[in-house]
């Protein structure tokens, strides 16, 4: 049984108007996560991810794995976090990306990069086994690993940290048309993945920036703390990151300048890279006639820790965390009666029964937590459950103590609805909330 009393969740109370360290807490999600014992700051731009949040991270990883493997047919691997600075020199990025690269030098004086992204590394792998038969392609390889960026000003907690968890997918194709098809496939998987997360998002065309290449799109959660300015053309309906407009302020599609604007938090990014890295590093294939050619590449990122933080930023109130159902640390929290209360003996036995039956529902096997801090009143624990934001909270209280007609208080925190239901109806309601997508 998952028991709340056994979960390491050191909360931090940040006094209102506290001048101390105020500059360190720069977003609502960061403050809420600190207050609720989900994260602790370690250094400037580095964080401890505490057990409850780690559960959300594992769920996000599982969701990303599902869409990468089933929809994109990509294979998961691990690239070394340290890459030789020499590779970055060959791609031309040692200088262009220099300011934000986290560098280290080993005892032999060799400089290594703690990578923010791994185009160089994966392309060097392909180059090392080149030329590869055309039969191997399309080749789609991804990893989920810690990335590093030497941020000038880390801010917004997990949203702009020096160290973060990211999914990076690299694709290799034998021609531009095939690479374009891969691009469509991955973007389609991103759409389905973000639909499954359920936080409103917008897709915009984006600048290729340091990555290079020709085509790029970003996925943003609209939010006041977003650092990107998104432009939506009122004439043709296309959206882009303001960076794309560069000098001119006209829509690239229709040449009008009639935009609505909003700020967004970037959670995912896709690029067609063409042969920028494969040419520089020599990643080749052999075609049907045995003639060598340069591989066409794409790269596709999803900020895993950022996706979680941005979801909390968008869904939460100033007081209470709200999670996407798919990412919540636990989806159901059970609150049994207070120790020594008159309900305890009669309502108490329902706890095991509910816990057991809820776990049999689809996808809820290890997703139920019991707030067993029974020295506290139900009211106090209910308040805590609202703050941490378990999507479903079930109170086993006075109403469950009725001999003939046991009833439970069911709080659907996704829609801020409460109901009082019998045993079977409670199970049906949990199943409906968790397993119907209508
Ligand atoms: Zn337009």
Structural commentary:
With 438 residues, the protein is an alpha+beta fold. The chain folds into 2 domains: 7-315, Bira Bifunctional Protein, Domain 2 (BirA Bifunctional Protein, domain 2, 2-Layer Sandwich), CATH 3.30.930; 330-435, Rossmann fold, CATH 3.40.50.800. The protein is 30% helix and 27% strand. It contains 13 helices and 23 strands. The chain has helices at 28-35, 51-71, 85-91, 93-96, 119-128, 176-197, 242-245, 276-281, 304-315, 344-347, 349-359, 378-388, 423-435, and strands spanning 2-3, 39-43, 46-49, 75-76, 82-84, 102-105, 111-114, 132-133, 139-148, 163-173, 202-205, 215-222, 228-233, 239-241, 259-274, 284-286, 292-294, 296-303, 332-335, 368-370, 392-395, 408-412, 417-421. Strands 4, 9, 10, 11, 12, 13, 14, 15 and 18 form a 9-stranded mixed β-sheet that branches. A 6-stranded mixed β-sheet has the order 1-20-19-21-22-23, with helices on both faces. Helix 2 (51-71) crosses helix 6 (176-197). Zinc ion binds next to loops. The site of zinc ion has 8 residues, from loops.
């Amino acid at each position: 049984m998952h028991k709340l009393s056994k979960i390491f969740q050191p909360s931090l109370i940040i006094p209102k108007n506290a001048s101390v360290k105020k500059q360190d807490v720069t977003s609502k999600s960061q403050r809420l996560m600190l207050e609720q014992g989900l994260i602790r700051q370690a250094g400037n731009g580095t964080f401890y991810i505490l057990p409850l949040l780690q559960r959300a991270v594992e769920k996000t990883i599982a969701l990303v794995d599902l869409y990468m493997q089933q929809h994109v047919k990509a294979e998961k691997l691990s690239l070394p976090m340290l890459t030789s600075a020499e590779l970055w020199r060959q791609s031309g990025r040692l200088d262009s990306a220099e300011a934000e690269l986290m560098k280290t030098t080993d005892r032999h004086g060799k400089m290594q990069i703690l990578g923010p992204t791994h185009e160089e590394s994966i392309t060097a792998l392909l180059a090392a086994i080149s030329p590869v038969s055309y039969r191997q392609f399309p080749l789609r390889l991804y990893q989920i690993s810690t990335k590093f960026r030497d941020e000038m000003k880390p801010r917004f907690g997990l949203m702009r940290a020096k160290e973060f968890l990211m999914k990076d997918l690299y694709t290799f194709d034998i021609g531009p048309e095939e690479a374009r098809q891969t691009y469509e496939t991955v973007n389609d998987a991103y759409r389905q993945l973000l639909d499954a997360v359920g936080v409103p998002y917008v897709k915009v065309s984006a600048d290729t920036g340091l990555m290079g290449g020709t085509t790029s799109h970003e996925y943003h959660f609209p939010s006041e703390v977003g650092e990107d300015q998104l432009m939506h053309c009122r004439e043709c309906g296309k959206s882009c990151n303001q960076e794309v407009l560069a000098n001119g302020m006209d829509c690239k599609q229709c040449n009008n300048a009639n935009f609505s604007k909003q700020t967004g938090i970037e959670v995912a990014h896709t690029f067609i890279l063409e042969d920028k890295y494969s040419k520089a590093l020599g990643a080749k294939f052999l075609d049907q006639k045995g003639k060598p050619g340069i591989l066409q590449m794409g790269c596709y990122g999803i900020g895993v820790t950022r996706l979680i933080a941005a979801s909390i930023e968008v869904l939460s109130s100033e007081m209470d965390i709200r999670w996407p159902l798919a990412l919540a640390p636990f989806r159901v929290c059970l609150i049994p009666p207070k120790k020594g209360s008159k309900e305890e003996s009669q309502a108490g036995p329902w706890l095991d029964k509910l816990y057991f039956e809820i776990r049999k529902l689809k996808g809820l096997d290890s997703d139920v937590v019991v707030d067993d801090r029974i020295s506290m009143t139900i009211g106090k624990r209910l308040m805590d459950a609202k703050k941490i934001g378990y999507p479903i909270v079930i109170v086993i209280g006075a109403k469950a103590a009725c001999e003939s007609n046991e009833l439970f208080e069911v709080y659907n925190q996704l829609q801020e609805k409460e109901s009082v239901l019998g045993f079977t109806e409670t199970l049906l309601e949990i199943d409906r909330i968790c397993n119907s997508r209508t």
